[in-house]
Amino acid sequence: MLKLTAVSINHRTASVGEREKIFYSVEEISRASEKIKQVTREALLLSTCNRTELYAIPASHGLTNDQLFALLLSGKNLNRHDVDLSYETYEGFEAIRHLFAVASGIDSLMVGDIQILGQVKEAYNTGVELGMVGTILHHACQSALKAGKRAKSETRISEGAISVSYAAVELAEKIFGNLKGKSALLIGAGETAELAAKDLVPKEISTLYIANRTLERAENLTEQIGIGFAIPLDSAPAKLSKVDIVISSVASQEYILTRDMVALAMKGRENNPLLIIDIGVPRNVDPAVKKIGNVFLNDIDSLNLIVEKNLSMRRSEIPLVGRVIDEELNDFIKWYGSLDVGPTIKMLRDKIEQIRAEELRKYKGRLKDSEIATVDEVTRALVNKILHEPLTNLKNSGNGIPVVDRVKMIKILFGLEEDEKG
Amino acid sequence: MEYFVNLLKIALPVMYLFTLFMYGLAFFLDEPFGIRNQTRFLAATLTIHVVYLLSRSIMTGHPPVTNVFDLMSVVALAVSAAYLYIEYVSRIKNTGMFILSIAFLFQTVSSALVSDVVDVKPVLRSWLLSLHVISAMLGYSALAISAVYGALYLMMYHEIKSSRFGLVYRKLPNLQSLEKLSYKSIIFGFVFLSLVIFVGYVWLPRAFEDFSYFDPKLIITDIVWLIYLFTLLSKRLMRLTGKTVVIVSMVGFALTIASMIVVNVFLPSFHNFK
Predict the structure, then answer these.
(1) Which of A144, A268, A312, A338 is deepest in the core (most CB within 10 A)?
(2) What CATH architecture does domain A5-157+317-334 belong to?
C-alpha cells in the first residue's frame, strides 16, 4: 500500500479570506521545507489562490493527518484558533488521483481552469529544488502533468470563456476572427473596463480609447495597462466610427449611445461590423441600436449566458477527463507495483539465470555431458553466493535507504528498467 | 471493367454518406472518432471518386462530360475537392457537413440515374466541349460553395444578433472567415464562368448549325455573369460589406438555379446534349 497522505484546504473547505491566510509563496515554502523534511520522506506543497495542499509520505508511522494540517498552519505561523476552515484528506492512490484531478482542472473552482497545470509544475520544480520530492512524488507529478496535458488536448475541459470579460473577447473573436489590429473603446474606467482591457491587450489590438467622466481615472488605467488614450466621456460617440469594439460600463441615467449616434457612426465606418457590449446598469446604450445592420449589441445577460453555456459544456466533459485520469492512475499503480521488492528480485534472478544459461550453452558442443553438469552446478552455486548479500540488503529495511530507492538503484544497475519497457 | 465501374458507382454515395456521418458526429456530438477520421474519410472518398470517373471514361471512351448525370458526378467531385482544399488552407473543419451535403446529393442522383451506355453525338467529341463543360462545373460548384458559406454567414449573423449563443455560435467559424470564404468562392466561380462564356462563344457557333446569340440559355448565363460581376464590383466600389454581399451572392445563386430549371424545362434551346 502506498503510504501517501494529502491534506487539502480548498474552495470547498475554506472561504477566500481563509484561503488567503494559508497561501504559501515560493519563499514561504522554502522556509517551511526544513520542518516538513524532518517529518516526511517525500513531500510536495501546492499553493494557489484556490487551494493549499500538502502531499506527504511520512518518515514514521505515527504522523497523523491532524499533525500534517498543523504542520501546514505552523509554516504560516498560524494555529488552529486563528483560522476558520476545515480540510480534506486523501490516502494512498486516492491522493494520487486527487493530484491528477487537480492538475487536469476538474477540481478547480472554475472547472477546466488552465492555470492550474502551470501551478502544479511550479510546485513540483520548487519541491525538487528544495529536496522535498523523491522518487514517488517525482513520478506522481510527471504523471499528473501528463494527465493535465492530455485532458486539455483530448477533451474540451478548458474550452470557451468562463469569465464575463473573456466572454466579451470571445464574442469579438466570433465576429472579427483575429483581433490583431482591431481597435476598442472602453466607456467607463472602473473594474469591468480594467478586466476587459487586460483581456483585450494581449490580443494585440492596435488602438484603445478609454472614455470616463473623470479623465484622471481613465489616464490612470491607460498607464496601468501600458497602452491607450484617455478621453472625456462626451467624446466617446465621436470615436464610434474609428473603433470595432465598444464596451460600456458607466453609471448613467441617460443613454450614452443613442440609435442616431450609432447609425451616423456606421456611415462613417463604411458599414463595417461594430460590436457594442453594454454592461452598464441601467443600460448605457439604446436597445434600438440592435436594429441597425452590422451592429452587434449585447449586454451583461448575453455574456452571462455565454459563460453559463461554456461552464455547462465543461462540466459535461468531466467524465471524459475522469477516463484520462483512470488511465494515468492505472499506469502509476503499475509502476508503483514494479517497485515492490518481490518482483524485482524475481526479475534480477531471471536475468542472471538467463546470462548463465546462455554462457553454458556456448560450451555444450565442446565439453562432455558430465563436465557440463559440473560447470552447471558450479555456476549455479556461484550465482547464488554472489546474489545472496545484495538481495538480503535489498529486502532489509534497516539500512536507512527507502525501499523504493533501493529497488530503483538495483533496476538501474542491472538494466532491469529497460527490460521492463522492452 | 463494367462490373468494377458499377461497383464504384454504388459505393460512392455510400462513402459520401459515411463521410457526412463523420462530419456530423464531429459537429453535433464532438465525437473524437468523428473528429479524428472525418478528413481521412473524405480523402478516401475523393480517391475512389477519381478512380470511378477515370475508369468510367476508359469504359465509355470519352470524358464524363456528355450527359447531365455524368456531369453531376463531376460537380460532386469538384465540390468535395474544393472543400478539402478550403479545409486544408483555412483549418476550418466545422463547415464540412454543409458543403459535402451538396456532393452527396449530386453523386446520389448521378449514381441512381446515369446510364451505362451513352450515345455521344460527334459534335460533342470536341476538346473544346470538355473545357467548356468542365469550366462550367467548376464555376457553378464554386458558386454553390459560396452560397452555402453565405447561408452559414447569415445563420451566425442572426445567432449573434439575437444573442442565442447555441450550437451555431459554438461550432461555426467567425463571421469574417465565413464572409471571406463566400467572397473568395465567388471570385473563383466568376473566373470559370467567364471562361465558360468565352469558350462557348468560340466553339458553339462552329459546332451547332442552329446557334443563336439570343438563345435563352446563353442569355441567362450572361445575366448570371452580370449579377456576379455586380456583386464583385459592389464590394469594391460601393463598399458593401458582410450581410449585403452575402445576400447578393445567394440571390445570384438562387437565380442561377431557378433560371437554369426554367430554361431547360420550358424553353427551346439548341444548347443540350441531345
Answers:
(1) A144
(2) 2-Layer Sandwich (3.30)
